[in-house]
């Protein structure tokens, strides 16, 4: 048996006459408000997005992207299809081709449907490539664009990131 | 002789006080409620059926979307059920880490409850303050697992990663300031005359009726029943911690409010104990790469989510996909109590009562 014990929460006594006078409660409540209002002048709670941005945590899970081998610059993905299998929203599709070196396979096309992706990060954990996972959770989180088809990210986008929107129509992320 | 005729009106599904897409059909006599009929299903996504077509590991992110204010609790129930199905023993360190995260989730969830409940009854200030502290909880969760709401923070057999550097210190800093913050909320609400008039004696439910309706969590404990899964069917290593289970004496909305406030303090107590005695060792038990439980195996696993008893029932047919996944959601059962609670009260009290049973429609409709 656990050490948890039940405790009856005491209810406060009925209000004394001076507390029934409405203004006392209002003043008490307003004093808390006032304290925070004054504090807000010294250190504001708000961040002026998009001019200011909060730093992202190192473990932040943005949209999944692909990466090359850090030393050789080859494609890391060896089409083991573990990410395709574990994805809960079935948003990954891989077409394979034999690797030109004659050994193993490589993806001819790798598609991640960003509209379906739920950023759970299971693909990056399941990835069987060596020495690091080919698919990883990037820090990209702004994906506004002008067409739905543009969210079906293919190899170019997965390697290079999401391109900035056309000039004159918006601000590039991070600028 | 004057006569009033009963009037039937709709509240919701698009109503700010119904916490999502809940529709209530109210039958009124003047402004007094004769009958309330909740109409649900506006947020039904078919998670149970969807789970039957996914591998055991791929279901965890789906459970995030059930109770989006306390996603960790849902992860916990599901992952615990799979572990029970496979007979996997979770390493002690992972168990303690799960307790820390589960109690932090309880604080975050109670804060959002406090914020919206206050806002529904007309206390605007409390909303902003409670959300500020909740933000800190979400930042901690983001630091741990990389997401703010849909955590996917557990894996079958343990937890996926250690706490990052400096995380426990940040958590301690948050816990250090929490009692002052709760005292501030109490200044704004507990003795507040308007708050007491709006909540005291509203929605009184006795222990027998509450048990009969299947209410769980703070909604049931408000009526004086000390039923808490953490005490009666301890999971993880909850039996190692000393904590109080607050119960109410009258069973009204005010009692349920007092209980949730006290639960936040008790959660803080549990986290501090767990951090103090965090064992060393592995965090992930060895589980086969392809999860295929034996044919016909069943498992039922309960956890105490911030809203009540959240349990998952799993049946295996020997393949790598579950044959049946059933989520017993506390919100669905607690919503059953709403017609009983609101009988004879005013229309404005329905708003207070929806807040006091603390439902999340994602969890009700699944």
Molecular structure report:
The complex is a heterodimer of chains A (175) and B (366). Chain A is an alpha+beta fold. Chain A has a domain at 64-160: Alpha-Beta Plaits (2-Layer Sandwich). Chain A is built from 5 helices and 6 strands. Chain A has helices at residues 17-20, 22-42, 82-86, 122-126, 155-160; strands at residues 5-8, 64-66, 92-98, 105-113, 135-137, 152-153. In chain A, the strands form 2 sheets. Chain A has a 3-stranded antiparallel sheet. The N and C termini of chain A lie far apart (58 Å). Chain B has one domain (47-365): Cytochrome-c3 Hydrogenase, chain B. Helix content of chain B is 48%, strand content 13%. Chain B has helices at residues 47-51, 60-64, 71-86, 92-121, 124-145, 167-189, 193-199, 207-212, 218-221, 229-232, 253-276, 330-336, 338-342, 347-357, 361-365; strands at 7-11, 23-29, 32-39, 244-247, 298-305, 308-316, 322-328. Chain B is globular and about 75 Å long. The interface between A and B is large, with 38 and 57 residues. Strand 1 (5-8) of chain A pairs parallel with strand 4 (244-247) of chain B.
Strand and helix layout:
The complex is a heterodimer of chains A (175) and B (366).
Chain A: E1 5-8, H1 17-20, H2 22-42, E2 64-66, H3 82-86, E3 92-98, E4 105-113, H4 122-126, E5 135-137, E6 152-153, H5 155-160
Antiparallel strand pairs in A: 2-5, 3-4, 4-6
Chain B: E1 7-11, E2 23-29, E3 32-39, H1 47-51, H2 60-64, H3 71-86, H4 92-121, H5 124-145, H6 167-189, H7 193-199, H8 207-212, H9 218-221, H10 229-232, E4 244-247, H11 253-276, E5 298-305, E6 308-316, E7 322-328, H12 330-336, H13 338-342, H14 347-357, H15 361-365
Antiparallel strand pairs in B: 1-2, 2-3, 5-6, 6-7
